[in-house]
Amino acid sequence: FPVVVLISGSGSNLQALIDQSLQGNLDIDIKAVVSNKASAYGLERANNAGIATHALDHKQFESREAFDQALMALIDQYQPKLVVLAGFMRILTEEFTRHYEGRMLNIHPSLLPKYKGLNTHQRAIDAGEAEHGVSVHFVTSELDAGSVVLQASTEISSDETADSLAQKVHALEHIIYPLSVKWFSSGRLTLENGQAVLDGEP
Ligand code: GRF
User: Fold this and answer.
1) 136 within 8 A of 105, measured Cβ to Cβ
2) Nearest Cα to 181, choosing from 54, 11, 5, 50?
3) What is the mean pLDDT of residues 183-188?
4) What residue numbers bound the domain in which 62 lies?
5) Model confidence, pTM
6) What CATH number did the domain enclosing 40 receive?
7) In whole angstroms, what is the distance from residue 88 CA to residue 198 CA?
8) In this predicted model, what pLDDT tens digit does every residue of 13-57 receive, in sequence order?
9) Atom 10 (ligand 1): residue with closest C-alpha?
10) Active site residues
11) Which residues form the Formyl transferase N-terminal domain (predicted)?
12) Do the annotations mark residue 98 as ligand-binding?
Protein backbone atom coordinates (compact mmCIF):
# COMPACT_ATOMS: atom_id res chain seq x y z
CA PHE A 1 0.00 0.00 0.00
CA PRO A 2 1.92 3.06 -1.26
CA VAL A 3 2.30 5.93 1.21
CA VAL A 4 4.21 9.22 1.17
CA VAL A 5 5.07 10.83 4.52
CA LEU A 6 5.62 14.58 4.95
CA ILE A 7 7.70 15.87 7.86
CA SER A 8 9.45 18.99 9.10
CA GLY A 9 11.32 17.74 12.15
CA SER A 10 12.31 14.84 14.35
CA GLY A 11 10.10 12.28 12.66
CA SER A 12 9.35 10.10 15.66
CA ASN A 13 5.91 9.40 14.21
CA LEU A 14 7.55 8.43 10.93
CA GLN A 15 9.77 6.09 12.96
CA ALA A 16 6.72 4.52 14.58
CA LEU A 17 5.28 3.82 11.12
CA ILE A 18 8.59 2.35 9.92
CA ASP A 19 8.89 0.18 13.03
CA GLN A 20 5.34 -1.12 12.84
CA SER A 21 5.74 -2.08 9.21
CA LEU A 22 9.09 -3.76 9.87
CA GLN A 23 7.43 -5.74 12.65
CA GLY A 24 4.75 -6.86 10.24
CA ASN A 25 1.94 -5.03 12.01
CA LEU A 26 1.35 -2.52 9.26
CA ASP A 27 1.13 -3.41 5.60
CA ILE A 28 2.35 -0.20 3.99
CA ASP A 29 5.15 0.69 1.62
CA ILE A 30 6.59 4.13 2.45
CA LYS A 31 7.64 5.21 -1.02
CA ALA A 32 9.18 8.53 0.01
CA VAL A 33 9.62 10.98 2.86
CA VAL A 34 9.51 14.67 2.00
CA SER A 35 10.62 17.46 4.34
CA ASN A 36 10.41 21.21 3.82
CA LYS A 37 13.52 21.43 6.00
CA ALA A 38 16.76 19.83 4.82
CA SER A 39 17.98 19.53 8.44
CA ALA A 40 14.99 17.49 9.64
CA TYR A 41 16.22 14.47 11.60
CA GLY A 42 13.37 12.44 10.14
CA LEU A 43 15.19 12.44 6.78
CA GLU A 44 18.01 10.52 8.46
CA ARG A 45 15.53 8.06 9.90
CA ALA A 46 14.14 7.50 6.40
CA ASN A 47 17.62 7.08 4.93
CA ASN A 48 18.46 4.54 7.58
CA ALA A 49 15.37 2.60 6.59
CA GLY A 50 16.28 2.74 2.90
CA ILE A 51 13.40 5.05 1.99
CA ALA A 52 13.74 7.70 -0.72
CA THR A 53 13.99 11.21 0.73
CA HIS A 54 13.46 14.71 -0.62
CA ALA A 55 14.04 18.11 0.92
CA LEU A 56 11.83 20.73 -0.70
CA ASP A 57 12.59 24.10 0.84
CA HIS A 58 9.50 26.31 0.89
CA LYS A 59 11.74 29.39 1.04
CA GLN A 60 12.88 28.67 -2.52
CA PHE A 61 9.38 29.37 -3.80
CA GLU A 62 7.72 32.68 -4.49
CA SER A 63 4.40 31.77 -3.01
CA ARG A 64 2.59 29.17 -0.98
CA GLU A 65 0.75 28.15 -4.17
CA ALA A 66 4.02 27.57 -6.05
CA PHE A 67 5.46 25.50 -3.20
CA ASP A 68 2.32 23.40 -2.88
CA GLN A 69 2.26 22.74 -6.62
CA ALA A 70 5.86 21.55 -6.59
CA LEU A 71 5.12 19.42 -3.54
CA MET A 72 2.09 17.88 -5.24
CA ALA A 73 4.11 17.05 -8.35
CA LEU A 74 6.80 15.42 -6.21
CA ILE A 75 4.34 13.40 -4.14
CA ASP A 76 2.37 12.25 -7.18
CA GLN A 77 5.46 10.75 -8.80
CA TYR A 78 5.10 8.04 -6.16
CA GLN A 79 1.37 7.52 -6.76
CA PRO A 80 0.55 7.16 -3.06
CA LYS A 81 -2.84 5.95 -1.94
CA LEU A 82 -2.32 7.84 1.32
CA VAL A 83 -0.38 10.97 2.27
CA VAL A 84 0.63 11.06 5.94
CA LEU A 85 1.43 14.40 7.56
CA ALA A 86 3.74 13.63 10.48
CA GLY A 87 4.84 16.90 12.00
CA PHE A 88 4.67 18.76 8.70
CA MET A 89 4.64 22.38 9.83
CA ARG A 90 3.19 24.11 6.79
CA ILE A 91 -0.28 25.47 6.20
CA LEU A 92 -1.57 23.93 2.99
CA THR A 93 -3.46 25.61 0.16
CA GLU A 94 -7.01 24.67 -0.65
CA GLU A 95 -5.88 23.27 -3.99
CA PHE A 96 -3.49 20.92 -2.21
CA THR A 97 -5.97 19.75 0.39
CA ARG A 98 -8.67 19.22 -2.24
CA HIS A 99 -6.27 17.19 -4.38
CA TYR A 100 -5.68 14.72 -1.52
CA GLU A 101 -9.16 14.85 -0.04
CA GLY A 102 -10.05 11.58 1.64
CA ARG A 103 -6.49 10.28 1.32
CA MET A 104 -4.48 12.54 3.62
CA LEU A 105 -4.18 12.20 7.39
CA ASN A 106 -2.63 14.49 10.02
CA ILE A 107 -1.82 14.06 13.68
CA HIS A 108 -2.40 17.02 15.96
CA PRO A 109 -1.31 17.15 19.61
CA SER A 110 -4.59 18.13 21.26
CA LEU A 111 -8.04 16.76 21.85
CA LEU A 112 -9.60 18.46 18.84
CA PRO A 113 -11.63 20.62 18.47
CA LYS A 114 -9.72 22.06 21.42
CA TYR A 115 -6.37 23.78 20.86
CA LYS A 116 -5.92 23.99 17.14
CA GLY A 117 -2.63 25.54 16.05
CA LEU A 118 0.65 25.74 17.96
CA ASN A 119 1.89 25.39 21.58
CA THR A 120 -0.97 23.08 22.44
CA HIS A 121 0.65 21.51 25.53
CA GLN A 122 1.36 24.82 27.28
CA ARG A 123 -2.06 26.16 26.37
CA ALA A 124 -3.80 23.11 27.85
CA ILE A 125 -1.79 23.46 31.08
CA ASP A 126 -2.42 27.22 31.29
CA ALA A 127 -6.14 26.66 30.86
CA GLY A 128 -6.16 24.30 33.85
CA GLU A 129 -7.34 21.32 31.82
CA ALA A 130 -7.53 18.00 33.66
CA GLU A 131 -6.66 16.09 30.53
CA HIS A 132 -4.99 16.55 27.18
CA GLY A 133 -4.19 14.31 24.26
CA VAL A 134 -3.80 13.81 20.56
CA SER A 135 -6.03 13.44 17.51
CA VAL A 136 -5.63 11.83 14.12
CA HIS A 137 -7.84 13.49 11.53
CA PHE A 138 -8.49 13.69 7.82
CA VAL A 139 -7.08 16.89 6.34
CA THR A 140 -9.39 19.56 4.97
CA SER A 141 -8.58 23.09 3.88
CA GLU A 142 -9.40 24.52 7.31
CA LEU A 143 -6.45 24.12 9.71
CA ASP A 144 -6.79 21.18 12.13
CA ALA A 145 -10.52 21.02 11.40
CA GLY A 146 -10.99 17.82 9.38
CA SER A 147 -13.05 14.92 10.66
CA VAL A 148 -11.41 13.15 13.62
CA VAL A 149 -10.47 9.48 13.17
CA LEU A 150 -9.06 8.56 16.57
CA GLN A 151 -8.05 10.30 19.80
CA ALA A 152 -6.10 9.29 22.89
CA SER A 153 -5.94 11.21 26.14
CA THR A 154 -3.77 11.48 29.23
CA GLU A 155 -4.17 13.19 32.61
CA ILE A 156 -2.44 16.49 33.27
CA SER A 157 -0.71 16.13 36.63
CA SER A 158 -0.32 19.02 39.08
CA ASP A 159 3.41 19.43 38.39
CA GLU A 160 3.08 18.99 34.60
CA THR A 161 5.32 20.98 32.26
CA ALA A 162 4.89 21.42 28.54
CA ASP A 163 7.86 19.08 28.05
CA SER A 164 6.61 16.31 30.30
CA LEU A 165 3.19 16.55 28.73
CA ALA A 166 4.66 16.48 25.22
CA GLN A 167 6.48 13.26 26.13
CA LYS A 168 3.30 11.59 27.33
CA VAL A 169 1.41 12.74 24.25
CA HIS A 170 4.16 11.52 21.91
CA ALA A 171 3.92 8.04 23.39
CA LEU A 172 0.21 8.07 22.55
CA GLU A 173 0.88 9.40 19.05
CA HIS A 174 3.15 6.46 18.31
CA ILE A 175 0.26 4.11 19.07
CA ILE A 176 -2.69 5.82 17.44
CA TYR A 177 -1.05 7.01 14.23
CA PRO A 178 0.13 3.58 13.03
CA LEU A 179 -3.26 2.18 14.01
CA SER A 180 -5.14 4.83 12.00
CA VAL A 181 -2.88 4.24 9.00
CA LYS A 182 -3.49 0.52 9.33
CA TRP A 183 -7.24 1.08 9.27
CA PHE A 184 -6.93 3.23 6.17
CA SER A 185 -4.61 0.88 4.30
CA SER A 186 -6.84 -2.09 5.02
CA GLY A 187 -9.88 -0.25 3.65
CA ARG A 188 -11.67 -0.02 7.00
CA LEU A 189 -11.34 3.76 7.23
CA THR A 190 -12.76 6.15 4.64
CA LEU A 191 -13.95 9.73 4.41
CA GLU A 192 -17.56 10.00 3.33
CA ASN A 193 -19.26 13.38 2.90
CA GLY A 194 -16.54 14.96 5.04
CA GLN A 195 -17.00 12.44 7.84
CA ALA A 196 -14.51 9.78 8.94
CA VAL A 197 -16.14 6.36 8.69
CA LEU A 198 -14.74 3.20 10.30
CA ASP A 199 -16.24 -0.13 9.26
CA GLY A 200 -19.33 1.62 7.97
CA GLU A 201 -19.92 3.55 11.21
CA PRO A 202 -19.40 7.32 11.48
C1 GRF B 1 3.82 15.75 16.92
O2 GRF B 1 3.63 16.27 18.21
C3 GRF B 1 2.58 15.87 16.11
O4 GRF B 1 1.41 15.74 16.85
C5 GRF B 1 2.69 17.26 15.56
O6 GRF B 1 4.04 17.42 15.28
C7 GRF B 1 4.81 16.57 16.14
C8 GRF B 1 5.69 15.72 15.28
O9 GRF B 1 6.60 14.96 16.04
N10 GRF B 1 1.83 17.42 14.40
P11 GRF B 1 7.61 13.97 15.30
O12 GRF B 1 8.40 14.80 14.29
O13 GRF B 1 6.82 12.89 14.66
O14 GRF B 1 8.51 13.46 16.38
Assistant:
1) yes
2) 5
3) 97
4) 2-107+136-151+173-198
5) 0.97
6) 3.40.50.170
7) 25
8) 999 999 999 999 999 999 999 999 999 999 999 999 999 999 999
9) 87
10) 108
11) 3-179
12) no
